[in-house]
Amino acid sequence: MRGMTRRGFIDSVAKVTAAAAVAAVPGGSLRAAAAAGPVTGGTLNYAEAGDFNDFNPWGFSAVDFEMYDQVFSRLLWKDGQGKEYPDLAESWQIASDKRSIRLKLRDNVKWHDGKPFAAQDYVTAFGYLKDPTIAKYYGAQKIQGLMSPAKEVRAPDRLTLEIAFDKPVPYMTDILDYWFAVRIDDPSDARFLKKVPAGTGPFKMVEWVPNQYARYVRSADYWQKGRPYLNQFMFKRLAQAETLVPNLRAHAVDDVLISSLADVAPLRSDKTYAVVANENSGSVFNLIVNVRKPPFDTTAVRQALSYSLNRAGMAQTAFFGVSRPITSPFYSSSSLAYRANLVMAHPFNLQKASALLEQAGVRNLEITINTTAAWPQMKLFSLIWQSDLAKIGVRLTINEVENAQFYDIGGAADLRGFAIHPWINARTTRDPAIFFNTQLSYRGDEHNVYGYRNPQLERLLADAAIETNVNRRKNLYQLANEIVVNDCFMIQIATNPRIWGQTARLQDVDIDLNGNLFLARAWLAA
Amino acid sequence: MRAGGGRAATVIGRLLRHRKGSFGVVVLAALVLAAVFCPYVSPYDPAQIHLAAQLAPPSPAYWFGTDELGRDILSRVLYGARPSLGAGLLVVVLAAAVGSATGLLAGYTGGWPDAVVMRLWDTLLAFPAVFLAIGIVAVLGPGWINGALAIAAINIPIFSRLVRAITLSLRGQDFVAAARAVGCSDGRIMRAHVLPGCVAPLIVQMAIAAPDAILVEAALSFLGLGSRPPAPSWGNMLSAAQGYLGRSATYALFPGLAITLVVLGMNFFADGLRDALDPQQVRSV
Amino acid sequence: MQGFLVRRLVLVVPTLFLASLVIFAIITLAPGDPVRMMLGTQATPDEVAQERARLGLDRPVPVRYAIWMTHVLRLDLGRSQVNDQPVARLVLQAFPYTLRLTAGALAVSVLIGFAIGILAALRQNRPADLVFTGLASLGLAVPSFWLGILLILLFSVTLGWLPPSGVAESGAPPLAALRYLVLPVVTVAVSNLSVFSRFVRTAMLEVLTAHYIRTARAKGLGERSVVIRHALRNALIPVVTILGIQFGRLLGGALITEAVFAYPGIGRLVVTSILNRDYPMVQAALMLVVLIFLVANTIVDISYAYLDPRVKMGEAR
């Protein structure tokens, strides 16, 4: 099972690194600099659109991704190829029944505030999941979902950690790859908004100016001696996605996460910049459907929505040819749940959409869709959709809201009364057990706050999670995939590759299996 | 009113001979024509998406090029005349109507109504206009009509103060006293004797306020508080164009040119109108 | 003079009070429940009710106003409902940025506006005058957000000389910080500059034909000294008045320019917090804007009185 997954990742990441390598070597002097090896010092000015939601890495909030690996560490981490690396744990042993793991922790690791790190910290962290104040925080709920198979976490001594599971867990290290070491000193501030957080990662967070930037400086206590090479990582927040690449070109920043996709092609043709595209990031653009709100409680109506989406046209125009049109979140052939005929199961067909609506007895349907400036693609595909829906008598109103409000609506169980809300979900290329344990909106039980219920889906997921036979496991997840695609409670639109535009001077940036930047060995060539 | 008709003809004649004024008249006429006849003169439906022609430069098929969804920019600029002209008209009519009613009342009656009304205007004028407009749109919700209402609200105090000042100066004059002596009601005096004296300055103030209203409306739609998509307005076209500066240099050009031209024309129109209504005034600019 | 000053400043208070009523009305009437927006995901109706009670939102509107005012008077502005930061901190953080932008724009527009206005007046109806007045008309008509976009297109996207948005981080060298300021300042300055130059030109023309100037010239004073010593000072009076009127435009222009350049000043704070229904932020930021505006107008009134002795300063003098 792991071999399958890994080969897919190697394929995809090989592409990424090849592209990066080609673009990163524009001229002789730079190649020489790269060959000379890492240079210590300097500030990496990095920019993204939007603003921070919080700083707790358990939240896995898309707007905060790129700070997680810099400030926090995990027991072990997986690189883009899925290869495991030790981090806070030096070594580990998995029991043959796949029901427990024993980890040997690194000595002399310190939190950024100077306190020593010990195995007991992970026991405490596991305890947070039961703390009523912390458990209300959505980030704690996310990690709780991931850690749900874990029964007990013990620290027999200062540097030994034992985790026991109540069932076989074939994807154990995938879980640990998510479990950042976090110390919540003030349970009422589980989001770390009132105080900058202390982690154990290569950079220490020292300053946050809301709406502007957060500043991270090199941690002298980082366990990898001599690293990080960079003195400082400045994470700037710009209100508009469209100003990111102009900022890069004006040398105001060195690296940007491009969310204004129109800029990708022009930047690719410029040799002083490298465009790093992680096509297999496992992130997808989709629509959350409020299945509690009639008529969207009817499957036919939801399917009508899916057939009315001109995904191919949207991918070309709204996503500027960068994304792939999809109906299934498991678009990557490396996923266990992948099935070729589900990737684009609902081709654009307005007649069919209209017929489905008629069949459900729905007339004069009016829908509102919220969009945010941080994701210009959403507005564009909404406009295309609006124009197509108008042809079958459905009125779509486009409501542009601020970023924070946008996330707020998407996070609310009732979607604040809206029928649909565009969203982005991730981890579709990871083990499906991880996907369904974290992307709870794809579930069919009480974990799904948006109200979709499907006992059949839940049975499949429960069986698949503990199935040790790879082929049987694959079959179960493919059946789950079919339900997701055809029930249209989460409607996929297109893939969301993570694309960075960066100065060609930037070297040795790691991208982990979650598609996030890890800058412990990054450096800037002169 | 015959004399008034004759005076209007004289004023129009002067306006048309005025160098800037005549330019203003032409621009205003073009704006009105575009707003009224855009469905007939636009080469395309402004909301029609041409996915194959995304961000195309100007060409014989699309004179002004296309936007991010391949929509024809020329057609969208022509249709964009509607919210602009609409806002300009709605603002000046509303502000003039409410402003003159309150100004007349405050100036003529004096006392506490005067104090209350003027205090209210002082308060509204304590806000920089754009800030207040945004606050009002937040209450009313986005949309060009609500935007226009908000801009009207920030203009009412100006009109009201103007009319009040004229009323105050007219109130003490002989013909008003005479009218009162022969038993005219207050309402009649205000309507028949005071209001006519306000007409010329009101018209000038309307001409000054209109281009300003158009600018503020465009700013509100630029901020996402004006016209809703897909309805085109010059402001929201520019806000979208900002996202594609790296791909299309012409996209941001035409909507901005349209705003500039219209505002320039209407400023000139206001200059011309002022000179035409008051030929004694030294022409300074 | 001091008494006059104090009285003018005291007048600000009742207006500020009335403005606070308007601001409170705006946020009370605006649709959208701040508590639901604040509690975010998975809040139960009980939690919403509790939070409403905690914030005092279940009380009658006049009581809420009274509570807000007492907090404001104790300088307690509350916390942002979006990012949980103290409002006072966020407002004070944004304020210097707006100050820099508006002060820079004011300086540029006064300096260049005066130069152009005087030059145009001295060259009345000659080509230079026509060019300047034409440009001024154009500068008045160009919407600042379009101008900003054109500047970004030229100086950032095409030439890559100046950053198109944001500001330098704290502690950045002054020159780096200045680079961020150039385009926004120019954008705000252009329309103001046009207004100034027009007024200076008009005022100069009036003064230059006045009899005391003719007298000064007759006395054989050099043209330079006539312009600087006599004409300029008298032309300053109407110009200072326009300065007061222009300040509102300056702030309004700053608001829109901040949106174009993602510049983290008060204007952006107001727009963002209104869109987010972040009530404590809206209240505080708008109050600050009104306060600045009123104080600026008062300063203009005072300098007007100082420049023109005909304006009575009252019995204190």
Descriptive account of the structure:
The complex is a heterotrimer of chains A (526), B (285) and C (317). Chain A has helices spanning 2-24, 28-36, 65-71, 119-128, 132-135, 138-147, 172-176, 244-249, 264-268, 299-307, 311-317, 340-343, 350-359, 376-391, 403-411, 432-438, 455-466, 470-487; strands at 43-49, 76-78, 84-86, 89-94, 100-105, 150-157, 160-165, 203-209, 213-218, 232-238, 255-257, 273-278, 284-289, 366-372, 395-401, 420-425, 490-495, 498-503, 506-507, 510-511, 517-518, 523-524. Chain A is an alpha+beta fold and 526 residues long. In chain A, a hairpin with a 2-residue loop joins strand 6 (150-157) and strand 7 (160-165). The two termini of chain A are 44 Å apart. The relative contact order of chain A is 0.17. With 285 residues, chain B is an all-alpha fold. Helix content of chain B is 73%, strand content 0%. The longest helix of chain B is centred in the N-terminal third of the chain and has 37 residues, at 73-109. With 317 residues, chain C is mainly α. Helices cover 77% and strands 0% of the residues of chain C. Chain C has twelve helices and no strands. Chain C has helices spanning 2-29, 34-39, 45-55, 61-73, 87-122, 127-141, 144-158, 174-208, 211-218, 223-260, 266-275, 279-307. Chain C is globular. Chain C starts with a helix and ends in a 10-residue tail after the last helix. Residues 312-317 of chain C have low confidence and may be disordered. The interface between A and B is medium-sized, with 26 and 19 residues.
Spell out the key features of this protein.
heterotrimer, A: 526 residues, 7-stranded mixed β-sheet, 22 strands, disordered N terminus, B: 285 residues, mainly alpha, 10 helices, elongated
Helices and strands in order:
The complex is a heterotrimer of chains A (526), B (285) and C (317).
Chain A lengths: L1 H23 L3 H9 L6 E7 L15 H7 L4 E3 L5 E3 L2 E6 L5 E6 L13 H10 L3 H4 L2 H10 L2 E8 L2 E6 L6 H5 L26 E7 L3 E6 L13 E7 L5 H6 L5 E3 L6 H5 L4 E6 L5 E6 L9 H9 L3 H7 L22 H4 L6 H10 L6 E7 L3 H16 L3 E7 L1 H9 L8 E6 L6 H7 L16 H12 L3 H18 L2 E6 L2 E6 L2 E2 L2 E2 L5 E2 L4 E2 L2
Chain B lengths: L1 H16 L1 H23 L31 H37 L1 H15 L3 H12 L3 H28 L2 H8 L4 H37 L11 H8 L11 H25 L8
Helix pairs in contact in B: 1-10, 2-3, 2-10, 3-4, 3-6, 3-8, 4-6, 5-6, 6-8, 7-8, 8-9, 8-10, 9-10
Chain C lengths: L1 H28 L4 H6 L5 H11 L5 H13 L13 H36 L4 H15 L2 H15 L15 H35 L2 H8 L4 H38 L5 H10 L3 H29 L10
Helix pairs in contact in C: 1-12, 5-6, 5-8, 5-12, 6-8, 7-8, 7-10, 8-10, 9-10, 10-11, 10-12, 11-12
